[in-house]
Design a protein that fits this description.
With 180 residues, the chain is of the alpha+beta class. It has two helices and 13 strands, in the order ββαββββββββββαβ. A five-stranded antiparallel beta sheet has the order 3-4-5-11-9, with no helix packed on it. A four-stranded antiparallel beta sheet has the order 8-7-12-13, with no helix packed on it. It has a two-stranded antiparallel sheet with strand order 1-2. It starts with a strand and ends with a strand. The mean pLDDT is 80.
């Protein structure tokens, strides 16, 4: 055996016996077998299966007249209509924070069934709201006449969203089924 010490290479004259090889081989074999058994057990773990009780449903996205929270505001989309390529959404926003907060125009977009996002044309749902204060507003969008499956996509932090988009980050929206 060779040992690298402070004074250079030192040769040690250690002879392993057959018994030493059997012991070391047994230890290595034990470690390998234990590792393989551990992998098999981990791979065979199945998720717990619920066999009784009511079925679990995926969370339902909000729809018309449902109140939902996004950031420091609670929203209710009260009406949505379409005439040709113009979509009009009426909504209410309430400041649920403990201090005055600014609701910026452009917090709502439309998303179609193909995943395209449409920005507002006009938006009166904005302003600085004191705690507990609600405002009603109308947001209009221009979309192609063949756009289908329209849903509102709400994100109250439009400044963070704009920065996130510029940086290539995904923006998180609350998706609301408006029935269009």
């Amino acid at each position: 055996m060779v040992y690298l010490g402070r004074r250079g290479v030192v040769a040690l004259n250690i002879k392993l016996t057959k018994k030493d090889y059997v012991i070391y081989g047994g230890i290595i074999a034990f470690i390998l077998i234990a590792s393989i058994i551990g992998l098999i057990i981990d791979n065979n773990k199945s998720p717990s299966i619920r066999t009784s009780g009511p079925p679990i449903e995926a969370p339902k996205s909000p729809g018309l007249n449902d109140t939902f929270t996004d950031g420091k505001f609670a929203y209710t989309i009260t009406e949505a209509s379409r005439e040709g390529n113009t979509v009009t959404v009426k909504a209410r926003a309430k400041n649920i924070a403990s201090k005055a907060e600014t609701l910026y125009g452009g917090t709502m977009r439309l998303r179609d069934a193909s995943g395209n996002l449409y920005d507002k044309d006009r938006d009166s749902l904005n302003g600085t709201l004191n705690p507990g204060i609600e405002i009603d507003g109308v947001i209009t969008f221009e979309v192609p006449e063949d756009a289908r499956g329209l849903k509102a996509a709400v994100n109250t932090n439009s400044i963070e969203s704009a920065v996130g988009n510029k940086l290539g980050n995904d923006v998180k929206y609350t998706i609301v089924d408006i029935g269009l």
